[in-house]
Amino acid sequence: MFSSLLKKASTCPNFDINATAMLMPVGWGMVWLARLTAISNRSLLHLASFSGSTLLVKAVEEYNINCTLPKDGWSPVHYAAWSGSTSVLSYIISQYNLNANDTNTDGHTPLVYSCWSGSINSVKYLINNHESDPNITDNDGMTCLHHSCHNGHIDITQYLIEVQHCDINKTDNEGRTLVHHAAWSGNFDLVQYLITEQGLSPTAVNKNGLTALHYASWSLNLSLVKELITTYQLDPHQADSNGKLPIHYAAESGDILLLELYVKDYKCSLSLTDKDRRNIFHYSSFKGHFHFIKHVTSHHSHSISLLHSIDKKGCMPLLYALQNGHTQLVKFLIEDMKCETKDKDPCVLL
Questions:
Q1: How far apart are CA 43 and CA 46, in angstroms?
Q2: pLDDT per position as a tens digit, 177-208
Q3: Contact present, 246 and 270 (Cβ < 8 Å)
Q4: Within a 13 Å sphere around the CA of 36, how many CA atoms are in the beta-carbon half?
Q5: Where do the ANK repeat units fall (predicted)?
Q6: How many structural domains is the chain composed of?
Q7: 122 in a domain, yes or no?
Q8: CATH number of the domain where residue 158 is located
Q9: Could you tell me if residue 337 is inside a domain?
Q10: Burial (Cβ within 10 Å: 0-12, 13-18, ≥19) of residue 269
Q11: Residue 40: domain span
Q12: Could you give the angle at the alpha carbon of 48 between the alpha carbons of 47 and 52, nearest 5°?
């Protein structure tokens, strides 16, 4: 059907098969938002490669589509690798005679995107068939092993460590270890594997003072947070270099259960601020976590006064919600919580 549509479209006088797509995703999940944003200004071949469908790639093949790399260096191979489809990846490389190891402006090779996709078959294909190097570092100092852990793929991580013998002790430019990336992903088994089987430290701190617990507090995995605190003795009261606590990261993620765990089990205070005097409501308002804030104000009424506190720049949580267009939250803060802002408030001008 797609092929027939292309044939009909090609007869139109203004039809350009090499035109690029501008996609405007609205209301989609964060993963798809990131993917579709990356695809903006791509040709049909880029889009077809990302679909993971060999049939779709073949459907556009007869139209002589330009395979020239865009300014940011993304080739159809990068997208085929990201799709996780080994068949599309193999077809794109051979049929269009494309380099399997080109880097884009982020320093990412197609192998990095195979690690993102979770397809161990495409990872093995690129390494074994095209001698892709899993040890190349990107602009952030991350190797394929960091990317695999960051995306929570334990099978790819095990393959890179046990078969490819990738360096498990290498940190990225921010000083993040494999455990930090795995904790961010929320994959409990992956974190356990790195600590118990590979002997990596659960208490390592990056250049900004973040531990695995700070990253896990973003991940929405309550069991992982408990494990890091109870088994590996990470401190729920330890701040990063900016004074940001694990409970602030929980507020930023909007995780109600995790917040209650920190408050009830570990006696973390809701009123604590970072060095910029931002509290849990500043972080949750920035992200628009309406239900999180409503829960806190309902179950911890003593914290309501924090909604009227200002940070170092003079901004209340309401201003964070306003600036980021969180309409439902703004309405709740103004009408129910009686938060007010003034025209002279410095944050209005940010």
A1: 5
A2: 999 999 999 999 999 999 999 999 999 999 99
A3: no
A4: 12
A5: 174-195
A6: 1
A7: yes
A8: 1.25.40.20
A9: no
A10: middle
A11: 2-289
A12: 110
